[in-house]
Specification:
355 residues, alpha/beta, Rossmann fold, 7-stranded parallel sheet, 3-stranded antiparallel sheet, 14 helices, 35% helix, globular, binds ligand FO1
């Protein structure tokens, strides 16, 4: 499946925020804020760091056991024989309070002994796997090799990390995001199709993109519990993740988008685009390159068939009417989750929006 069918600007956190520890408060520290959304059965659609941060906010304002996170697996890859699931791991590490806040991926206080030795041997070291992070990939790979589906392994890891949020890979089947480049790079001439992490990490998402495809999506079955969770949710929240390469793979799994369309009134999204840019990663650039408007209005237009409410940042206040002209209710609020408190505040905003 190819999505869309036709066919960064900000640099991240301020220095003071970077030096802080993991993003998610540990369970014992949670006070659930001033309001408790006890009756919500919440489903979130997730990519990597933006989703992880919103989840870290949501677990402060609603019981984690009432949250199901459906997570992108299009970024997954096999490297050194290991199955790596970056978005599942970013969400897991963040909810476990062990995320690396500087990078937005991997584990806090990481060491790199294995990678350093691998580089000395001339092995592939462009995709950095820290020593602690490697334990996750070793465990996952061994369990998959023994026949456990990805959803089961994900639940095992979450339980051992003391995470009460239910984490569901969108599918247990192989679904891989592929990127066709529109310019010559070290990986080939214009028109070359590469794996997602080749585009994202190896080329630092600097190459122009012609198309994005989700290999394996057409034959993929939704993971166990995915469609039921969407059907039974009292609220569905689309996290501020890349609409093309994080949310796109979720929609590409047969059955997911029709279920979202059927529950549209219950779906609220947080725009990952703020003032025409993404906080991290190539979302704005990718949208432009694929012919979409890289603004909150473009996000509203893209999501309108299955999203009823879009939360946009205060900086885009002037575009609220244009968002509503796309047929999407617009809520204006601070959306930059530079601290756990701000993430909790955004969590409250989103829950109020879907209540
Ligand atoms: N991102 C990078 O920019 N460079 C890396 O070396 C890198 C390694 C890595 C290892 C494990 C993991 O779970 C994620 C990793 N990421 C790395 C992040 C990842 O490529 C992307 O952030 C996501 O796929 C996009 O959501």
């Amino acid at each position: 499946m190819v999505w869309p069918s036709s066919g960064m600007v900000r640099t991240g956190m301020a220095e003071a925020e970077r030096s802080k520890g993991p993003f998610s408060p540990r369970t014992a520290d949670r006070g659930y804020g001033h309001r408790f959304y006890a009756r919500l059965v919440l489903v979130t659609l997730c990519g990597g760091v933006g989703a992880a941060r919103l989840l870290a906010g949501l677990v402060q304002v609603t019981p984690p056991r009432d949250i199901t996170a459906i997570v992108n697996v299009g970024d997954d890859m096999t490297l050194h024989g290991l199955h790596i699931s970056p978005d599942l791991d970013t969400v897991t590490y963040t909810l476990a309070g062990m995320d690396n806040r500087e990078t937005g991926w991997g584990v806090a206080g990481e060491t790199w002994t294995v990678m350093e030795e691998l580089a000395r041997l001339g092995g592939e070291s462009w995709f950095k796997l820290g020593d602690r992070d490697l334990a996750t990939h070793l465990f996952r790979t061994e369990r998959l090799r023994a026949g456990a589906p990805l959803s089961v392994v994900t639940a095992e890891v979450a339980a051992r990390r003391d995470i009460a949020v239910r984490l569901l890979p969108v599918t247990d089947d192989p679904l891989r995001t592929r990127v066709t480049l529109d310019e010559a790079t070290e990986l080939g001439p214009a028109g070359t199709e590469v794996a997602f992490q080749d585009y994202f990490v190896r080329l630092q998402h600097q190459a122009t993109v012609r198309a994005v495809a989700f290999a394996g999506a057409d034959g993929a079955k939704p993971g166990p519990g995915v469609l039921d969770a969407l059907r039974e949710a009292s609220a569905i929240v689309v996290c501020p993740s890349n609409p093309i390469v994080s949310i796109g793979p979720l929609l590409a799994v047969p059955g997911v988008q029709p279920e979202l369309e059927a529950r549209r009134d219950r779906v609220a999204a947080v725009s990952p685009i703020i003032a025409g840019s993404a906080l991290k990663g190539p979302a704005a650039r990718l949208m432009s390159e694929l012919g979409l408007e890289a603004t909150v209005v473009g996000v509203a237009r893209l999501y309108a068939p299955w999203v009823a409410t879009l939360v946009i940042d205060e900086r885009d206040r002037d575009l609220a009417d244009a968002v509503e002209a796309e047929g999407v209710r617009c809520v204006v609020a601070p959306t930059i989750m530079s601290t756990p408190e701000k993430a909790a505040a955004l969590g409250r905003t989103v829950l109020d929006a879907v209540e």
